[in-house]
Design brief:
This protein has about 525 residues and is of the alpha/beta class. About 30% of the residues lie in helices and about 15% in strands.
């Protein structure tokens, strides 16, 4: 057994051996290729059972639920917005296992009156969040308000149960935590067991992992100073299904409350399933397709997908431009169509009116946009990466200098867009993470990072810090309640914000917070 310095992440002497280095409350596990043997220097913490509310009383009303194939206590508890402990309290033995066809009771609080209140939808609200606040299921809320199946619109009124004295709100700030310390597992690809056979891709991933790890360690210091009692375990996880299965069955996962990572799409479902079965939550800190959220109620995706980004663009455009001064470009390219439709649907959802100026790119050599734009401040939304379409946009706009052009995140470093064009048309784009380099807080953080690691932070350093700080703060404030309520958590981040919503009834959470970056005076600035 060798002890290594965590920041340096030196290579172990034996590729098949696992190392665990203890420093403060952080446990580093650099696992070998086969994960055949795990050794500890620290004794694992004994965690309290999670208990968020008292068992249901004899005066409660119950639903009868018939267990379906593959259902777990965790999934059922989330379906009915109750805790596992509440279900077990009225179904002794349920914690030992469920069988298909078994009928179990689900406790539901009884209010002293059947009176209803009116709730007005606010920006960022979700059906799930409103249902939790009023102590009902999403299905019950939809029964009262059938129209919300098409989506929530800020300003709409909903029929909700009246909150009576003695009925407990599910606001996490009002819940009593029983757990006082937490185990946070970080799964990143350090490639410690095969350093001599790394591809260029492996090296890029390793460098990103080290930067993200360092950001997480900076966050762990901030969290400890704020009073969070947590142990961080760092596990080397590469893109290997056999490896992740071995890790999930190992003692290193005992008591895990939160998992950050892994970075690989094919490993996410395995870890998400483990979290659902073990009352843990996981967050994926890099871009992944939204399909990873399907049937993954214990998973959060911290990077918004492209559709969510363009829904944010729609809201930004409606807030900053007159409806008559907006043009949407339809490239007719299949991959772009979902973004065009997302923009139009969000537009209709908010305005109750169709977007009137949509230019379909039939003949790029004869593309005419300028005639559609009145005088004054205008915007052209261009959801495409096609360089021919983009070049045609500039030609069509001619000498107009009062037009903003909004593109995709990839426009940030697209060489086909010159500096002069970017400045002339105030080229803008969505970007999940963006660092204001001259911000005083950022400058202080970068100075501390340089002193600690003798290097400059990169984007992944900021992401690691933000994700760990956000979720650690949530645990510190609320404990292990449903992370849907994390929209109530506000922390000072470096590169991005967090506003989560559940994508489907049985799905995971996607971050809806998007930075809109705009070019002005040859500089990039956050516009929203």
């Amino acid at each position: 057994m060798s002890t290594i310095s965590a920041p340096s992440l030196r290579q172990p002497s034996n590729g098949n051996e696992a190392f665990c280095a203890s420093f403060s409350d952080i446990c580093l596990i650099i696992a070998g290729k086969r994960f055949m043997k795990f050794t500890f220097l620290l004794i694992s913490l004994l965690f309290c059972l999670v208990c968020f509310s008292q068992p249901a009383s004899r005066n409660d009303v119950y639903y009868e639920h018939t267990v379906e194939a593959g259902q777990t206590l965790y999934g059922i508890s989330k379906k009915y917005n109750v805790t596992i402990e509440q279900i077990v309290a009225v179904n002794p033995g349920a914690d030992s296992g469920l069988r298909q066809g078994q009928v179990i009771r689900i406790p539901q609080p009884v209010s002293s009156s059947s009176k209803s209140d009116t709730y007005f939808v606010k920006p960022g609200d979700t059906v799930f969040g409103i249902a939790r606040t009023y102590g009902v299921t999403t299905e019950q809320l939809m029964e009262l308000n059938p129209a919300i199946e098409k989506g929530l619109i800020p300003g709409d009124s909903l029929l909700v149960p009246a909150l009576q004295a003695g009925v407990v709100s599910s606001n996490p700030a009002e819940l009593q935590k029983s757990q006082t310390s937490y185990d946070i597992v970080v799964m990143l690809p350090f490639y410690t067991s095969n350093k001599d056979s790394l591809t260029s891709r492996d090296i890029r991933l390793r460098d990103a992992a080290i930067a993200m790890y360092r950001g997480i360690m900076m966050a762990s210091d901030s969290l400890k100073a704020s009073g969070l009692r947590a142990k961080f375990r760092i596990i080397d996880v590469v893109d290997d299904k056999a490896v992740i299965q071995t890790v999930l069955k190992s003692k290193e996962m005992n008591g895990a409350d939160l998992i950050i990572g892994p970075l690989f799409k094919d490993l996410v479902p395995d870890v998400a399933a483990w979290c659902s079965a073990n009352n843990a939550h996981m967050v994926v800190p890099v871009q992944q397709p939204n399909r990873v959220l399907l049937n993954a109620p214990a998973l959060s995706k911290s990077v918004p997908g492209s559709v969510t980004q363009w829904m944010s663009i729609t809201r930004y455009v409606l807030k900053n431009f007159s409806k008559e001064n907006v043009v949407l470009i339809d490239s007719k390219i299949l991959d772009d169509r979902k973004l065009v439709e997302a923009f139009k649907e969000e537009w209709y959802k908010i305005t109750k009116d169709s977007l009137r100026k949509v230019v379909v790119c039939e003949d790029l050599s004869n593309l005419k946009i300028a005639p559609l734009l009145p005088s004054g401040k205008c915007v052209v939304a261009v959801p495409t990466n096609d360089k021919k379409v983009i070049a045609a946009i500039w030609r069509s706009l001619g000498n107009r200098n009062d037009v903003d052009v909004i593109g995709l995140e990839s426009w940030d470093d697209m060489e086909a867009i010159s500096t002069e064009i970017r400045n002339k048309f105030h080229v803008s784009f969505p970007k999940p993470t963006f660092v204001e380099e001259e911000d005083e807080f950022v400058l202080r953080w970068k100075d501390a990072y340089r002193k600690r690691y003798k290097s400059d932070p990169i984007d992944f350093s900021y992401v690691g810090y933000d994700v760990a700080l956000y979720y650690g703060t949530f645990l510190s404030k609320f404990g292990k309640v449903d992370f849907q309520t994390s929209s109530n958590t506000r922390v000072k981040t470096l590169s991005g914000n967090f506003e989560f919503f559940r994508t489907t009834t049985d799905g995971g959470f996607e971050n809806a917070a998007v930075n809109i970056i705009r070019t002005n005076n040859f500089q990039l600035h956050r516009a929203n």
